[in-house]
Structures are given as structure tokens and as C-alpha cells.
Design goal:
The protein contains 3 helices and no strands. It is mainly α. The protein has one domain. The chain is elongated. The mean pLDDT is 82.
Length: 100
């Protein structure tokens, strides 16, 4: 899964958790058995979602650090190739922007 997709998923999960928490808080005054059961299930689901969200964030941070470390190692091992790649990317971006 790409980093953008993962970040979007994390943001969506945060929104769902916040909405579920608001729903649980809003129904706190309803004393019926069905409402109590629904609140308990929703609270459990919110806790599960929070745990999964924390796992996703930790995994995303770990992957980003690994990519950064790999890129840093490559640049240190191949400095001139890295300069050449950066220059080529700069030329391509310059040409593309110059056409507009």
C-alpha cells in the first residue's frame, strides 16, 4: 500500500473513531438495554480501531525510516551517481515546467 493511501486510511480511521466516540457520548443518557449494549459494542470497536490505528502508524513510521536509511546509505556509497540522478531529475522538471 502506498504511503499516501496508508496516510488517507489512517486519517479516515481517526475520523471514524472520533465519530464513534461522539455517538457513545451522545447516547450516554439513554438507559434502555439495547442502547447500553450498542454503546458497549461501539466502545469496544473504538478501542480495537485505536489499537489498529496505532499499529498502522507505527508500521508507517518504521517503513519511512527504513526507506530514509536506505536512501542515505545509497547516497553515501554512490555520491556521484546521486548527484547525476538529482541533476537529471532537475533537468526533467525544468523542461516540464518550461513548457507551460
Amino acid at each position: 500500500m502506498s504511503e499516501v493511501t496508508t496516510r488517507t486510511l489512517i486519517d479516515d480511521l481517526r475520523t471514524v473513531v472520533a465519530d464513534a466516540e461522539a455517538l457513545v457520548a451522545a447516547t450516554a443518557g439513554d438507559l434502555s438495554d439495547r442502547a447500553k449494549g450498542a454503546r458497549q459494542r461501539a466502545a469496544g470497536s473504538v478501542e480495537n480501531a485505536r489499537a489498529r490505528l496505532a499499529e498502522l502508524e507505527a508500521d508507517l513510521k518504521h517503513r519511512a525510516k527504513a526507506v530514509k536509511d536506505d536512501a542515505t546509505e545509497y547516497v553515501h556509497e554512490n555520491p556521484w551517481q546521486s548527484v547525476g540522478i538529482a541533476a537529471a531529475v532537475g533537468v526533467v522538471i525544468g523542461v516540464l515546467l518550461g513548457r507551460r
